[in-house]
Amino acid sequence: MVQDHLDPCFVADMMLGKLARWMRVLGYDVWYKNPVDDETLLAMAREWHRVLMTRDTRLVRRRGVGEYMLIRENDPMDQLMEVVRAYPPDPGHVLGRCVRCNTLLVSAGKEDLKERVPEHVCLTESKFGRCLKCGRVYWQGTHYRQMVRTLRERVGVEEMQERLL
Q1: How far apart are CA 40 and CA 55, in angstroms?
Q2: Which of 36, 83, 91, 165 is least surrounded by Cβ atoms within 10 Å, i.e. has the fewest?
Q3: Domain-wise residue ranges, the chain
């Protein structure tokens, strides 16, 4: 698999689903699947040159484990802070991935989405992103603003606020 950019890419174990989604919000390339066995995780990390993220101390002691990050915190926002400290996000990639399937988003026009989003959204929003893989549509509505607020308050990504808005 070819990486989208030069930033590190990750593989997250089953215990880190919420963290994987929040990392995608910040633009990190995170492969996540539940359920998945340890051998598959290790193979994905090795073959795709991804950083293994886990809370499983036994997993990281295995022979052949490449680069890894042992997540120590329990709360997903605290976990995200661990990741941000170790691998600062690129502000240019924030909110550029589908949080569901990890695919890079493409810009989409209102005309293309009239059947996919509520009418009031088409009337009030001008910027849209669309996932070509799963079809999910994104815009800067209340959910978006809540994510920005959470990232600012809980994770301290204040410096990215202008990029997000």
Answers
A1: 16
A2: 165
A3: 9-93, 105-164
